[in-house]
Design brief:
The protein is elongated. By secondary structure, the protein is mostly helical. 55% of the residues lie in helices and 0% in strands. The protein has one domain. The two termini are 14 Å apart.
Length: 51
């Protein structure tokens, strides 16, 4: 988030989150699923992070 904030020219990441929070509502679920796959040793994660 810090890198994105800096690239957008925002003073701090809190401002970036306030402005763009509507863009990332599904990211928590995706992160939780990927983390679960990694912890429980699944060979192929159910979700892959986009580059």
């Amino acid at each position: 988030m810090k890198v994105v904030s800096e690239r957008l020219g925002h003073a701090n990441p809190a401002f970036t989150l306030t402005v763009y929070q509507h863009v990332i509502p599904g990211m928590q679920e995706e992160a939780a699923s990927l983390f679960s796959d990694l912890i429980f040793g699944r060979d192929e994660p159910a979700l892959a992070l986009a580059p």
